[in-house]
Amino acid sequence: MKKALLGTSALVAASVLAAGPTTAAEPLKLGLGGYMEQSIGFVDHDVPAAGTAPIGMTQPVRAEKVDIFEETEVHFKGSTTLDNGIKIAVQIELEALSGGTGDQIDESYITFTSPTLGQVIFGSENLPNYKMHYGAPTVSRQGLDSSDYYGFWAPHINTTAEHRLNAAYGNTSGRFFANDPQHIAYYTPRLGGFQLGVGYAPDTSQGNAFRNAGLESGLSAGLNYRGDFDGFGVNASFGVIYWLQDPNANAVAAGSDRTPIFYQGGLNVTFAGFAVGAAYAATPYDATAANNAAAADSFDSWTLNVGASYKTGPYGISIGYQTSEAEGSVTNALSGEDELSTWEVAGTYNLGPGINWHAAIAHISEEGEVVGSTDDIDSLVGVTGIVISF
């Protein structure tokens, strides 16, 4: 799913044609793959007034202490190699969450890969800045950059969904309104340890929508490095995503930063099963009132993750810490800074081919901008479960 840099359509076409005849040795046939996760966990919330909704949270904190989380995808994928050496592959990812809502197809795309010219991705997939990013080392199934913690077990109370998933608040992944958008991207071959990827998305839409879909004309670029020095591995990355057009820019207050841009970077060092590293992301973007009718929200935010992990045989363990700040919140009355800090200890064990047990415990602390504790919450989360890949 991750790590795979953009040429023009003319470059791609010229490359394919120059390589010679394009007759496939045999027709492409689809096979099945995917994964299923079933996890159970507990949450203990510490809030100012039990049974009430903290400021910025539309519903009271749940009374239930235990819940079950599931995530399943079925992948239809296949590939064939043309007579000229170009490998063509397709992948379609079917969401299989029982009773779930949202899209039924997660990603759907074609790849063209040349041993010497690099790779082109065409379709609905993550953009290069996301795919090429190195986060802080972890063995966690949830992970500090994942929406599992902040979207399910302990949702943010002081920010809208857009803040949680698209700003640099609580994550460094670089999604930034680009959740598998329709796009075209080019990845260079890796040279001297370096690889470059660039991509273009017409808008934030994942499906066919020839209309205003929020931010438009997105440019994404990623650059990463992989090197080995006498047993020490060094992995580093830098990424940026920039939307050239914001149709709702006039809704933002005068003098604010209207540039929808997101920066991210990461560094990992590995040795003999150990890994240590950090990742950072930031955006100065002041969002538009279209994202929240009550106010002209700001997505101005930053996040720093640090972590360390160790793997040996079927075992793995990691520890991580995250600190984050976001400016602005749900209403004009809440216009200060939200602060988030999280620590996590996680473990994993491989039970057999494609079968992994995981467990993690995390403490999440969020302080809102209101003086006092009426918009603060602390959450202790424990999760364990099984992930089966097939």
If you had to describe this structure to a student in words, what would you say it looks like?
This protein is mainly beta. The protein has one domain (34-389): Beta Barrel (Porin). 7% of the residues lie in helices and 49% in strands. The chain has a 16-stranded antiparallel beta barrel with strand order 1-2-3-4-5-6-7-8-9-10-11-12-13-14-15-16. It starts with 8 loop residues before the first helix and ends with a strand. The model is unreliable at 1-24, 50-56, 250-255 and 289-295 (pLDDT under 50).
Gyration radius from CA atoms, angstroms: 22 Å
Which homologous superfamily in CATH is the superfamily? Porin
- The overall strand count is 16
Largest sheet, in brief, is: 16 strands, antiparallel, barrel
- Could you estimate the helical fraction of the residues in percent? under 10%
* Assembly level: single chain
Low-confidence stretches: 1-24, 50-56, 250-255, 289-295
Would you give the CATH topology? Answer: Porin
Mean pLDDT: 81
Q: Work out the strand percent.
A: over 45%
Assign the CATH class. Answer: Mainly Beta
**CATH level-two architecture:** Beta Barrel
Task: Tell me the overall shape.
Answer: globular
